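New to this. Look over this protein:
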Amino acid sequence: MADHGGGGGGCCHPMDLFRSEAMHLVQLIIPIESARLTVSYLGDIGLIQFKDLNAEKSPFQRTYAGQIKRCAELARKLRFFKDQMSKADVKPSAKSETKAEFNLDDLEVNLGDLEAELTEINANNEKLQRGYNELVEYKLVLQKAGEFFKEAQNRAAVQQTEVSSQQAAEESLETPLLKDQESATDQGKQVKLGFLTGLVPKGRSMAFERILFRATRGNVFLRQSSVDEAVIDPNSGEKVEKNVFVVFFSGERAKSKILKICEAFGANRYPFAEDLGKQAQMIIEVSGRLSELKTTIDAGLLHRATLLETIGKQYEQWSELVRKEKSIYHTLNMLSIDVTKKCLVAEGWSPIYATQQIQDALQLATVDSKSQVGAIFQVLHTKELPPTYFRTNKFTESFQTIVDAYGVAKYQEANPGVYTVVTFPFLFAVMFGDWGHGICILLATLFLIFREKKYSSQKLGDIMEMTFGGRYVILLMALFSIYTGLIYNEFFSVPFELFSPSAYACRDAACSEATTIGLIKVRDTYPFGVDPAWHGSRSELPFLNSLKMKMSILIGVAQMNLGIILSFFNALYFRNPVNVWFQFIPQMIFLNGLFGYLSLLIIVKWCTGSQADLYHVMIYMFLSPTDDLGENQLFPNQKTVQLVLLLLSLIAVPWMLLPKPFILKAQHNRTHQGQSYTPLEGTEESLQVEAGHDSHGHEEFEFSEVFVHQLIHTIEFVLGAVSNTASYLRLWALSLAHSELSTVFYEKVLLLAWGYNNVIILIVGVIVFIFATVGVLLVMETLSAFLHALRLHWVEFQNKFYEGDGYKFAPFSFALLGDEDE
């Protein structure tokens, strides 16, 4: 099998989906001066998968670590720009068709200047905004605290007037003496009160008041007034509801305590003058500064928006350039540098058909980089297994993805994806058959297909993206569902006489129970699908169950036979006669000796109209193979045929199990007996040494391990032949479930609502019917049938021939870079 590394037999392009593309290992020797341009051109064509020749080195020890670091710094600046644009609600322009040429050095300088300018604008704007927010708070303090003082002065003037009027009314001989004494003592007691003003968050104002009271033991006087609208806090930049406060205190100790409490509660303090004239002057000054700052901030924001729009116009091109450059240097780091340090050596896998394209790219890079020495291209011979590469289009890609989800095909083994294109939607449709539901899914899929250009360029949600990716699978599922729905004659569970009138009619005009008894055949058989007369009859379920169960077995045996036949083509392609004689032939005999025979009996019974019991035939074929069949005989010499098939099936089991391990052991001994290695022709010295190492270091042939593996494989096939055939009965079970659910929703919701002769009940019934049909039958049942069809392909079909232990061809390609963040 390793001999096919050079592409042995799979070079036919029309069959490129049946066998993976023929690959070869190539070596490129590239001069240093043209290395970057060469890798860039190879990334454009995207047809070579480079091997990492520096796997033992850490990322920091590699040749181009500095350039990668530089690209990472440029990517960081671009992320900064993107973040700033999203905050300013500026969207980057779409990629322009005309590609402007950028130099990485010029781009680095340009991005550096733009980042510095944008950072400076942001810093200035932040500083101005902070100052503006402080002035807004200061203005509020001046207004609210000014009201406190004005109110206090008015109250003091009123009290003074009252006191003086009382004194004039209560004059006596003793009054002057007492008054002089009191005034003398009051002047000695007078204390100058200090005060602080500011804003405290509204949610913390009560706690602020309590702490102040406790800390000063009640020796403070606090006044608070709530601000009507939330203000932007200068420190956090967030909108906060606040209260303006004025706190009066006595003494420096009290002041220091109050200052600490203000700091702890995030209260912003502002200076305040007692004089009303000064207060009015301060308000005018602050208002003037606010209008100036507002104008300055607006001008700064306008300049920032203009700068971001300029960046947005070229952001996508810059981002693409940086991604490309980073990927180029990542690839160059996988190349080994020659001892002379004048050229780089690359190794990688490429399809054979791409050889000319790669050579053209190398030549173009040599010319464009004005290198005096051209790159050297040569094919290496290796025993290493090449990667698997299928060329798919938008139609076949989703089917190939279904296969790859199970396992990537081994290099050039038969690809089940070819058959999955037809068998997958067909098996789905067998379970989902209803041409009404099929039309609904078809319309939804056509909508996705008509808008695929729009959706393919958008970011969709997880479920929507999955549905859109599999739109062509769903399209075929819908078309096949319409086909099987016509065969089952079900349109939302209602039968129609589409192709001709029913073959059955009432025995006479007085046939009262036409749906149950009294029907006789009066015309030719209904030409296509199930006769509509079966629906609603007493024998509908027994008839349809029998039909669908036997059809499931026929489909299952046919698909399993296809799987075994594909194993034969694999054995032929890889020149493995052991697998043909001791795997393919006994497997075909065993499967068809039992279940192929059962399929034959089903077809014979359908054709002859026999009443034979097939359960009885199959059970007694094993229990009493020599007994007479009696009324269960379907054709002459049936007992002899059954005996022969039973004996062949019994012989097939040891035929599968015993010879293969012994033949493999003999082949191994013949290959390695007294054999020394010989260097491969036309290879480098390093490769010859490697080949020699492989030849001497081959593993010993473990006969017991091979025998146990073959025993497991045989048991798995024998038991699997029974269980896999039974597994296909899910086609019958799900088809029955879908049909019965449709009938329930139609009869118990729609017809029931119709029978009430009430418009409101009818509208409610129609709405319930639509939601039940869409939610249960078009979504849940679709998903259920999809998963069951998936299981039948992965387990029942692919395990007959598909190893699926390969690895995908992952070429270095700019087209695959996508829009992922660096």
User: Anything to note?
Assistant: The radius of gyration is 44 Å. Residues 104-169 form the longest helix (66 residues).
